[in-house]
Write a structure and sequence with these properties.
It is built from nine helices and 17 strands. The relative contact order is 0.15. The two termini are 17 Å apart. Helix 1 (10-26) packs parallel to helix 2 and helix 4 (85-91) packs across helix 5 (100-112). The protein has helices at 10-26, 42-51, 61-66, 85-91, 100-112, 138-145, 170-187, 220-224, 336-344, and strands at 5-9, 30-34, 55-58, 74-76, 94-97, 117-124, 132-133, 151-157, 193-195, 215-218, 242-255, 278-284, 296-298, 304-308, 313-316, 329-334, 349-353. Strands 2, 3, 4, 5, 6, 7, 8, 9 and 10 form a nine-stranded parallel sheet that branches. The protein is of the alpha/beta class and 354 residues long. The protein binds pyridoxal-5'-phosphate. Pyridoxal-5'-phosphate binds next to strand 10 and helix 8.
Length: 354
Amino acid sequence: MSYPKIVISTGIVKNNVKILVGLCKKYGINVAGVTKGVCANEKIVRSFVEGGVKYLADSRIKNLKRLKPFKLPKIMIRLPMISEIPLVIKYSDISLNSELKTIVALSKEAIKQCKTHKIILMIDVGDLREGIFYKEDLDYIISNIIQLKGIKLVGIGTNLTCFGGVIPEKHTIKKLTDLGKLIENKYNIKLGIISGGNSSSIHLLSVDALKGINNLRLGESLLLGKESAYGKQIKGTSSTGFCLEAEIIEIKYKPSVPIGKIGKNAFGETPTFKDRGIRKRIICGVGRQDVKIESLIPLDHKLIILGGSSDHLVIDGDDSDIDYKVGDIIKFNLGYGGILSSMTSEYVDKAIID
Ligand SMILES: *Cc1c(COP(=O)(O)O)cnc(C)c1O
């Protein structure tokens, strides 16, 4: 086994999934397990399935391909590119959409592949990423969609907190559910899926503000057990299912402020340093090509991460009670960005434990 290495406990992930699926179920909500954060890793996906998710969802064709062995319906959660439509039809059952041109292309391809592809129409209720801007163009797009063959409009959905950072509130969600009712009445159709967002919508469960929503697309909360609007841990879950291990390659005592004129670092940023005098500095063989270093949380709380470059992580180890030696391993828990980056990096070994 080589380093850096990410150790994943599928038992912890499965328990998180069970708790969240149970919590959502109490409010009449089913869960689409979003697998992009772990590159649809088969063993981790299995813990999603065993934990009780109803759908599997991913943003990338390569990941949807990996989901093929699983029986659950698959959702493509990034708006499809016209160039990838044959694969969207082949590897997903449902896709999130907002462009009529794309939906027409999906319809043609679905007919060609003798399939009925399901569509969730995305509504932008304020975050300003994807979706029809609230009611604009809605009539035009829906009246066209319902005439197309090979596809079926099965629901509407929204996405929040991803781009504009808009936190879901009761009135934001109500915009979506009201629109759902309006569409059902006006076009005399049944929308089976009202998808109320991602892990940033979970905090609304406890205040009973997701009335009318029957689906959430959850990634981060299943992996880390945290709702993502405020970062609160959900009762009974754990955020320790992912642990990055890195090896120490240098330990030296050095000044805490670099010597010489300071310009931009390797990433075009001008670093600033606090003068703490001569300190014990530890370098680990892990860097930005392996993991988003801002997302690392050392298990030894007395270590201070000073920064990093492509291949090096520089740590102030002066306050630690542990007498680290070159060759020792330092362990870190990870935030969502850290999981996503290290699961994606081919330089990080993956070790999956139970
Ligand atoms: C990534 C993504 C999700 C999952 O978001 P989390 O915050 O990880 O729960 C849900 N929906 C869409 C459209 C996404 O792109």
